[in-house]
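Quiz preparation item.
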């Protein structure tokens, strides 16, 4: 019965956007760029510091997928529940572990790491102020009535960028950095975790859709340990990866008028850079100007990360 419910919900997600998809411009598979866009220096330095190469890291995450039939089955099942091709999830995993951190050799290591977070005392705070208290400040009043977790945390991130980022408020100087890096990285700024290399803020944003589709408990910002356990546990994190990708596909359909569901390199790119709705709006605005000037519309383009996914897609599909 539970499998039927999950299948129904996955189909329902896809059906809700059919009318929009019919009017959307299909972005064909493959890369728009003939050569791979430049890889950021930070990614190169991180890889060199661990005495490895991008190719070696790719082969390592490929081997993890190749050697673990159970993981591949989990990916297929999760993709079906969210109405997406499994290659979108695979692309996110491969991109993260090629350009971010090395994959572990065995999936079991992720489960062990997940349990370790339950014994740690973690906080989401900056300069001694817990984020739960921080978002009660009057600047966040406009977000108070939002019920959906994505809209709520997206609103709070916008307030952070507008009212606090790089400013001094009430005698406290706030860094010119992302909301997630400032409040949601107990170990060090920019750190992500798990098979999908999710950050806690993204997980909190996707909490409602994962609760509805997969039936997992809603995440509580007041319980950082559980948030990190969710990120590290493959059985829990895969739905969050899928939900993040589903959000990007839906945003580009409904806002920018593009169907990117057949291009895992594009969803991998958005998984890497984040803020799919803002990027969809920016692309929509650019294309409105291009049309007004009699120019052809611009298709979404992959970055270095998504370029690799599309370049390796045949090899990755062969695993499934």
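Solution:
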């Amino acid at each position: 019965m539970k499998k039927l419910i999950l299948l129904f919900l996955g189909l329902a997600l896809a059906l809700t956007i059919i009318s929009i998809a019919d009017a959307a411009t299909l972005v064909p598979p493959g890369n728009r760029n003939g050569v791979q866009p430049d890889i950021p220096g930070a990614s190169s330095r991180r890889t060199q510091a661990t005495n490895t190469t991008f190719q070696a890291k790719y082969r390592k995450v490929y081997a993890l997928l190749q050697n673990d039939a159970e993981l591949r089955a989990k990916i297929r099942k999760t993709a079906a529940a969210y109405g997406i091709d499994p290659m979108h999830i695979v692309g996110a995993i491969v991109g993260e572990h090629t350009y971010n951190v090395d994959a572990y050799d065995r999936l079991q290591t992720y489960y062990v790491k997940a349990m370790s977070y339950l014994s740690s005392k973690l906080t989401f705070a900056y300069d001694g102020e817990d984020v739960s208290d921080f978002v009660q400040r009057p600047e966040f009043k406009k977000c108070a009535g939002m019920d959906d977790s994505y809209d709520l945390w997206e609103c709070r991130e916008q307030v952070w960028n507008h009212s606090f980022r790089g400013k001094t408020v009430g005698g406290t100087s706030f860094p010119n950095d992302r909301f997630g890096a400032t409040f949601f990285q107990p170990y060090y700024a920019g750190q992500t975790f798990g098979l999908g290399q999710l950050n806690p803020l993204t997980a909190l944003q996707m909490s409602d859709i994962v609760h509805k589709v997969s039936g997992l408990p809603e995440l509580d910002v007041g319980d950082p340990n559980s948030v990190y356990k969710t990120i590290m546990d493959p059985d829990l994190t895969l739905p969050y990866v899928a939900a993040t990708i589903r959000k990007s596909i839906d945003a580009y359909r409904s806002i920018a008028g593009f169907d990117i569901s057949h291009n895992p390199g594009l969803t991998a790119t958005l998984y890497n850079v984040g803020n799919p709705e803002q990027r969809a709006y920016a692309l929509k605005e650019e294309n409105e100007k291009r049309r007004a000037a009699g120019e052809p519309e611009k298709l979404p383009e992959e970055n270095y990360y998504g370029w690799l996914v599309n370049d390796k897609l045949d090899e990755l599909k062969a695993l499934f």
